[in-house]
Amino acid sequence: MTPRFRCDRTRHRRSTLKHIRTYLKAALEYAVDERLINRNPARKLELPKTQKSRERFYSFAEMKQLLSVAAGRENLVFRILLFCGLRPAELLALRIEDVDADQLRIDEAVKEKEKGANRIGETKTETSDAWVAVPPDLARDLKAWVAKHPQRHDPRAFLFPTATGTAYRVGNFLKRVLKPIAKSAGIEDFDFRAMRSTASTLFQKHGTVKDTQGQMRHADPTTTLRYYVKVIPENQRKAVADFERSVMKKGGKRRSKADPGGLLMKG
């Protein structure tokens, strides 16, 4: 009987499971070499079926509606997620000293399962530690937010703290603060993963793949394209229409001489 992984298939990508299998096989192979076990039980380990990543991202219209109903702190939060592409754990770990004139410093993240001083730790990857560009209007509003912050004289104070001055937990902030606002804007399925895909997808109209990779802080542009940038149907239709016009027209006249009537079958 071939051994199989047992896991929650809704929480892990296939690539992640492949990495786990590789390391597991290597560790057990070492155990075989050291004669700790007779055979490698992971040699024929099969991967479980996994669900494909969700293709959801929010449209321009949905984002405009969301920003129109969000005010104050929540408006800033949604705009940082959209324009700067931050992960939620990075957003909630931002401190006053991380706000610069036209950029944000990302070098910490909230650890959802940790307590006390351990709740703030390292970011997801080495390339996650970076400065990200902030658009002019958002930069101006962030400066105004800092100027009115109750702990504005403490550079280490969290930018968006709880009432007690600590960092929010990601799950709590999503459920109690952001989801209700998104729902009022007509977005019933708001979540952070779709929001990060939205940041990448809508940005592609305004910047190159390298620009998107830099803003999202991915180590490889393949990650940006494969997992985050989605196809915008209206952009795709426009591109195809532009392509057709460039080929079929010359000097303002349509070049095709095809007779539509000839496409009808006779019989």
Descriptive report:
- With 267 residues, this protein is mainly alpha-helical.
- The protein folds into two domains: 1-52; 60-228, Intergrase catalytic core (hpI Integrase, Chain A).
- 44% of the residues lie in helices and 6% in strands.
- The chain has helices at 14-33, 60-69, 72-84, 88-91, 136-147, 170-184, 192-203, 209-216, 221-228, 233-248; strands at residues 103-106, 109-110, 120-121, 130-133, 249-250, 253-254.
- A two-stranded antiparallel ribbon has the order 1-4. The chain has a two-stranded antiparallel ribbon with strand order 2-3.
- Helix 3 (72-84) packs across helix 7 and helix 8 (209-216) packs across helix 9 (221-228).
- It is globular.
List the defining traits of the structure above.
mainly alpha, two-stranded antiparallel ribbon, 44% helix, 2 domains, two-stranded antiparallel sheet, 267 residues
Quick gist of this model?
The protein is mainly alpha-helical and 267 residues long. The chain contains 10 helices and 6 strands, in the order ααααββββααααααββ.
